[in-house]
Amino acid sequence: MFSANQTASVKAPFFIDTHSHFDAAEFDADRDAEYARARAAGVGMLIVPSITRDNFAAVAATCARYPACLPAWGMHPMYIGIHQPEHLANLRAQIGAQRPVAIGEIGLDFFVPGLDPAMQVFYYVEQLKLAREFDLPVLLHCRKSSDVLLKHLRQIKPRGGIAHAFNGSAQQAAEFIKLGFKLGFGGAFTWPRANHLRRLAADLPLEAIVLETDSPDMPPSWIGQGRNSPAELPRIAAELAQLRGTTVEAIAAATTQNACALLRLDAFEALTTSA
User: Fold this and answer.
1) Enclosing domain of residue 96
2) Cα distances (angstroms) measured from residue 9 to each of 4, 15, 43
3) CA dihedral sign, ordered 41, 47, 52, 58
């Protein structure tokens, strides 16, 4: 674990993208260049979550090729039509074969029509149990589902996690924080009309915030509907700094420390100088 003093000794600003699907096909044509661009911009770590059993191999290959990429293993609620109960055994084996920094991306999506809520809850609960068993935090997909997510978190109690792309209420944010969670903010709050998200980003305690891109998705306002990239994280941090009336260096230092403490990123110092 890294102390505040160790974090401060790293050349600033140093950013951690706590949620990037860098294995996605959208990066196949230029992944090397995008990795180099992110590293040059100061992005020192990327957490790469899986979404189904079938992309465990792609995430593993991405993390093997790029030293600053670290895996999270999980089964995403939007792919509920693909998951099978036996895939939970595959997930357990993957955790044993290559220990991740978190279990994710898991959670619930009550926004997209046609995703069976009961089956979503089944896979969510089973993956929470794995997180608790292996003493790992979770990366939560939480679209229109915060109250149900919180209900099961109170019952099963994993070692905290990140509410990815958090868009709930201030009251729900407080409940996640009580349970040891950080709240992920990325490109969505940079849009001028995202008034609710901008208020949350400005007002929530900085010690509860981590940065993310969700790349290639969740593009910030300056990209429009184009492909998002981990290299956009410093500009996202600058937008957050402006909202909060502070410096990008302060945002980088705080969010990096938050992510390191939560995810127990023991490789942090080594990766600051990795290729």
Assistant:
1) 4-271
2) 9, 14, 16
3) positive
Instruction: Tell me, yes or no, if the pTM score tops 0.90.
Output: yes
* Mean pLDDT value across the chain: 93
Residue in this structure with the two tokens 């260096």, named with its chain if needed: 249
CB 140 within 8 A of CB 164: yes
How many domains does the structure of the chain reveal?
1
Contacts of 85 (CB under 8 A, 6+ apart): none
Residue 171 has a CB neighbour count (10 Å cut-off) of 9
- Residue 150: Cβ-neighbour burial (10 angstroms; 0-12, 13-18, 19+): buried
Show Cβ contacts of residue 254 under 8 Å, excluding neighbours closer than 6 positions. Answer: 206, 207, 209
CA 75 to chain centre: 14
Task: Tell me the C-alpha distance between 275 and 259, whole Å.
Answer: 21
255 contacts: CB under 8 Å, gap ≥ 6: 15, 16, 206, 209, 210, 211, 237
Query: What is the domain-level CATH number for residue 180?
Result: 3.20.20.140
pLDDT at 213 over 90: yes
